[in-house]
């Protein structure tokens, strides 16, 4: 059952700076929305690419990956080989990936992000952080905000893909 109030309308997330609440709210909203919209009856459509669009599975995997990568950079760390491998494989079909797998992986990543947000001091949010191998300068809050807005963007794209797939299949 979907909550009538969006996450941001339910108040602050405990132990997270007021400046980081929008990031936490957006990530938790994406998690709730995907939990609501993604069900086992869609498993046979997860990797379909209507009109060449990205698949539902890709969007969820990409949300997981981008969140992981941005929060890694936010810790002032470089990506490891596992993260590069994940990035290379986000759009590749994997037979074992179903809606339960995607929702579990998303839950774990969002939970990890929320726990990391709880450790960030307000005095740190404008500190310089670097993005990628090119070390593009950003700020801690810039990386965190990007993770949240990017997740929201891909959830919106997921909804479009889902709508097209549902409307093209008479049985759904």
Model description:
This protein starts with 20 loop residues before the first helix and ends with a helix. Strand 1 and strand 2 (136-139) form a beta hairpin. With 172 residues, the chain is mostly helical. Helix 1 (21-37) runs antiparallel to helix 4 (99-117). It has helices spanning 21-37, 56-74, 81-89, 99-117, 140-168; strands at residues 128-131, 136-139.
Low-confidence stretches: none
Helix content: 40-55%
Q: What characteristic shape results from the CA principal axes?
A: globular
Give the radius of gyration.
Answer: 17 Å
Number of DSSP E strands: 2
What's the helix count?
5
How do the SSEs run, as a string of H and E?
A: HHHHEEH
Report, as a whole number of angstroms, the end-to-end distance.
19 Å
List keywords for this structure.
172 residues; two-stranded antiparallel ribbon
Write the layout of secondary structure elements.
Layout: H1 21-37, H2 56-74, H3 81-89, H4 99-117, E1 128-131, E2 136-139, H5 140-168
In short:
With 172 residues, this protein is mainly alpha-helical. The chain has helices spanning 21-37, 56-74, 81-89, 99-117, 140-168, and strands at 128-131, 136-139. Helix content is 54%, strand content 5%.
